[in-house]
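Morning!

This is the sequence you dropped in the shared folder:
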Amino acid sequence: MNTHAPEPITDSSASTVAGSAPPTNGRDLAVSGQSLVYSYGSAPALRGITVEVARGELLAVTGPSGSGKSTLMLCLAGLLRPDAGEVRLGDRIISTESEAARSELRRSEIGVLFQFGQLVAELTAAENVALPLLLSGVKRKPAIAAATIWLDRFGVADQADSRPTQMSGGQGQRVAAARAMVTEPSVLFADEPTGSLDGLAGEQVMTQIVRVAREASTTVVVITHDAKVAAYCDREIVVRDGLLEGGVS
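The structure's back. Tokens below.
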């Protein structure tokens, strides 16, 4: 769990051309994958991708459906173990660790935000956000207090007592983003975070994610097919047929 002080918000609208020289040379890496290979049965999804993401960077991973971009995210987040290659979280090789160890990382150092939020219907927004803390052994009162702070950071503090069915899609996705960030992870992975939202709600969600990530110095990897979403990030890479377009990250 990170304890650093927030840094000033900076402009995140500029993105570089996919396949350009990687900006990570000489910089501290938050997460990286080297020569990653993964197949679903006989169908290859990743065919030797190498990607490096610097600390504090916002990276967009784009590409057509079925290109392997979501599989890449799942490997980098420790949700899948690659068939070959190596995943590092900072200096720690996580691709060879047990599922229990990788699950522990996802409760502390890795945040994951999915397209449909996956909130627990029976819980309030505050309880949903507090859930990762509660599962890590934090007592209910401080966990709810922390959840309330993160709901406020994402602009949905007024929904603390609402259940998912009582919120709009955009509100629910911001609650899910708060849940992904409540443990103050070093890296946030967001898989099509605006894919189920209309244009305005999607813009609100991405604006909040970028603002909060900048404040917390959190590295963000966004999987998207939407050019408008990719434009919120510092850099964009393109995955096609399980390979990185241009061959560099």
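Headline: The chain has seven helices and ten strands.

More detail when I'm at my desk.
O.
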